[in-house]
Amino acid sequence: MTATVSAPPMAAIQFRGLSKFFGTAETKVTALDNIELALPYGEMVLLVGPSGCGKTTLISIAAGLLNPSEGEVVVLGQNLTKMGANRKVRFRGENIGFVFQQYNLLPALSAVENACVPLLIAGWNRAKAIAKAAEILTAVGLGNRLKAFPSQLSGGQQQRVAIARALVHEPRLLVCDEPTAALDAASGRTVMQLIKQVAVQPDRAVVVVTHDSRVYDFGDKIVSMADGRVVEVLGKGQRPHE
Amino acid sequence: MNWVALRMLTGDRAKYLGIIFGVAFAALLMGQQLSIFCGLMRNTTSQIRDIEGADIWVMDQNVQFVDDVKPMSENELLRVRGVEGVSWAVRLYKGIGRARLDDGNFQQMILIGLDDATLVGAPRPDRIVHGELGDLRQPNAVFVDEFGWRYLFGKEPFQPGKTLEMNDKRAVIVGMCKCNPTFQTFPILYCTYSQAVQFLPQERKTLTFILAKGNDDLPKEQVCKAIEDQTGLRAQTNDQFFWTTIQYYMQRTGIPINFGITVMLGFVVGCAIAGQTFYLFTLENLKQWGALKAMGVSNLRLVGMILLQAVIVALIGYGLGIGGAALFGFVFQRAMTSTPPAFYFGWQILVGTAAAVVVISLAASLLSMRRVLFLEAGVVFR
Amino acid sequence: MLTRYILPLLGLIAFAFAVQQMTQAQQKTPPAVPPVEPAKSPFAKQLAGSGIIEPETENISIGTNLPGIVERVNVKVGDMVRPGVPLFRLDDRQLNAELVVRKAFLENAQATLEKLNNAPRPEELPPLRAKVAEMVANLDDQTKQLTRLQRLGAAASEDELTRREAGVAVAKAQLERAKADLALQEAGSWKFDRLVSQSAVKQAQAQVEQTGIELTRLTVKAPQLKWDATNSASDATEYKVLQVNVRPGEFVGTVQGQALIVLGYIGKLHVRVDIDENDIGRFRPNLPGFAQPRGNPHVKFPISFVRVEPYVIPKKSLTGLNTERVDTRVLQVIYRIESADLALYVGQQMEVFLNAAEGK
After folding, report:
1. Which of A7, B217, C34, C285 is deepest in the core (most CB within 10 A)?
2. Is residue B67 one of the residues assigned to a domain?
3. Number of domains, chain B
4. What is the ipTM of this complex?
C-alpha cells in the first residue's frame, strides 16, 4: 500500500518555509509564519500550544486538507503542494489516519462497521473489511462491543473505536486532533496509552495535537507553538514553559 | 460506500420516515389531484368515448366541443356520404332535452338520437345492463344510463316501463346501459333519431352530428380532410375530437388553473417537507460527511452517496404516494354510486408525478450537496 | 427490518397497485361494431342521395270537380282498376231535384210554343163574324132610315136629318171595327212571339242537359292513360289503388293537392332521388348506381337512369314529421329500379348511391 513511499531515514513530514494567511490584504491574518520543521517516523509527536496558535492549521496542511500560502510540505516523501486535488484525496485515504476530538463516528453504524469505513473507501469487500476491523477493535480492547452503536458506548470507548478506524487501513501517518479533550483523565490516559502502544511503529509517524498537559508525558517529542511559529522543540520527558 | 450511505439514511428511523412521508405525501397529493383533474377533463368527452362504432365525427365548422351543438341541414348527411373514402355515414342527434318527471319536476337530460336504421353509436352489448338494443325501435322507447337511473329514481331497482314526459311526448324507459360519467352529470337518454326529434321542441334543424366511417385502407385523417374539403364541414377523428373538446375546457374554463394551483401546492408542500427534511438530515450529518471527506472520500463519491439516498427516498416515497392515490381512486370510484366520479388514473399521472418527485428529490439533494461539497474538510478539527 | 425491507416492500406493493389501477383505467376496448352495418358504397367516387319509391306514372292523386258529401266509394286499396271505372260518387239529391225543376221549365216553354203555334182558337171566329153581320145589318138599317127621312124632304126637320146622317156614319165605323177584329183573329199568333217562345224552349232544354252533366260529374272515374313513348304500359294496363283517403259520408272539397285516392301504374318502380344542390356539379345524367332500402344494407337494387326533373325544388326533409321542413333545394332525378322483386313499396325511402366516376 505504501510501497512507493521511501522508508526512513527521511523525515515523515517536512515543512519548508511554510506560511498560511487567511483573508485578503486588509484583514490578512497570518496563521502560520515561515515554519521549518521535520517530524520523524516511529515517534509520537505532540503539537502543543494555546488556542489559535496555528497547530490545527498546521496539521490540516500536513493532512492535505488545506493548501499552504507559501512554502512546501512533503509528507511521506510526497510533495503535497505539487499534488493534484484528486490525487491528494486518494493519498489521504490511503496513507493518513484521523482521530478527531468529537470522534465523528457515524451514529448509524455499529462499532465494527464504523471501524471498517476507511477500508471501504479503499474499495475493500465488506465482509473482509469487517473481519479486519473486528481484529483491530479486539486489539484496542473492544472485542466484546463489536455490534454496539456509538450511542451505546462511553466517550473513551468511542474514541477507541475512532482509533481503530484511524488505523484499520494501516496508514503511515496518524493525525490526532485533541483525542483526549472530551474525555476524563483516566479515559484520556487509556486512549493515549493505546495510541502509543498500537500506533507508534517504526515506519509510521504519529502527530497528536493537544493542549491537555496531562498527556505530555506520552510524547516522544513535543513541538510547542505560539502565534503561528514554532517556539521550541522538546525531547521526551521535557515540558514546555508555561 | 453505497452501503454506508444507505445505513446513514436509514440509521435515524424517525427522520427517514419523515423524508419518505414528505415525498409520499407530495406524490399522493399531486397524483390524486392530477387524477381528479384528468378525470374531470376526461368526463367532458365521455360521450365521444361512449358513442362508438364510427371513426369520424362530422359537424358544423364552428363547433368548438362536443356539447357545442350547431345543427346542420339534413342534406349534409348525403353530401358526406358522397365524399371519396367515406365508407358510410349516419346521422346522430346529441343535445339537451328537458324531461318532466312524475313528481312534476323538470330535469335536463342528455339526449342521444341514433340513426333509426342502424343504431350506430348505441352502447355495445356488454354495456347494456337491462333490455335489448332492439327495444329502442319500440315507440317512444328510451334507454337510460345507470347513473341517470339512480339520479332520477334513487335506490329503486331498475324496472322497464317507467315513463318520462319530454316535449309533451311520453318516453318509456325500456333499458339501462352503462355510460362513462359525464361532465354535466345529467342523465343520458338513448333513443332513435326520429324519436329524439320528437322529444325536442320544434327546431328548424336537428342534425347535430354525422358519424362516419372511412374506408379501412385509408388513414382516417385523410378521410377527414377529404370531408372538410368537399363539404366545408368540420371532420375529426375520435381522438382529434376528444382533444379538441379537452382543449376547449382547458382554455375556456377555470378548471385547469384551479387544479393547477392545487397541484402546484402539492408540489410546493412536497418540496418543502421532503426537501427540508432531507436538507436538515444532511446538515445534521455534516460533521460525519466532513469526516468522510477527510478520510479520503472524493467529491464524486459524496455526490453519488447523496444521490443514492435521494433516489431511495424518492422511489419509496413515490411508490407509497402513487399507490395511495390509486387507492383513493379505487375507494372513491366504488363509494360514489349516485353521482359519477371524476377520477382518471392514466399513465400520464404516474409519469407526471414521478417527474415532480424527481424534481423534488433533486432539488433537496442538490441543496444538501452544496453544503457537503463546499464543506471545508478542516472543520472536523474544530 | 421495518426501514430496510418492509418500507421498500410497501412502496413496491403500492406502486404495483398503482400500475395495476393505471392499466385498468388505460384499458381501451376494441372498436365497437354497429348493430346494423350502415349502407356502404363500393364506388370510389360516389354521389349519395335519399330517394322515394314511386310508380312509373308517378302518383296520381285523384281529386273531385265538385265539393260535396261522398255517397259511395267503389274501390278499395290494392284494387286494380281500368281507366274509366267509377271510383266514388258524391251525393246527387240536390242536382236530381234541380233536374226535375229544370225539366218542368222546359215543358212549360214547350207548351207556350205549342199554344202560339195553334192560334187562332176556332171558337173565337163565329161571334166575330156574327158581329160583322150585325154591323152590316145595323148599317143597312141606318141607311134606310136616312133615306126615308130625306124622302120626306122639308117635312123632315133639319135636326132629325143631321142625327140620321151621324147614325149612318157610326154604323159604318162600327162595321169597320167588327171587320178588323175578325181579321185579327183570323190572322193567328204573331211570328215574333213564336220565335221568343222557341228560344225559351231551347234555354230550358240546355239547363236540363247541364244538370244532367253535373250529375255525371258527381261520379269520379279513373282517368284515361296518356302515355309518353318511354312508358312500358299497354292498353290493357290497370292502375293500382295505392291509397284511399275518402269514405262515404265525408265531405270533400276542391282543395288543390288533396289526394282523395292515389292511383299509380306499377309496371316498373321508379325511385325519385334527391340530390343536394351543392352536389349538382358532380351529377351527370346516366350515372349508374344502386339503391338500398333503409335499414337493410344487405339488399341492393340496380337502378337505371330515366330522367332529370329540370326544376330544382325545395327539399322536403324526410324526417317523418308531420310538419315537413324546407331547408335547401334539391335536384330530383328519376331512376328506374331494374328488379322484379316487389319487396319494395311505393313511398319507401331508399339510400341511393351513384358512381360519380362513370357516366359522361
Report:
1. C34
2. no
3. 2
4. 0.84
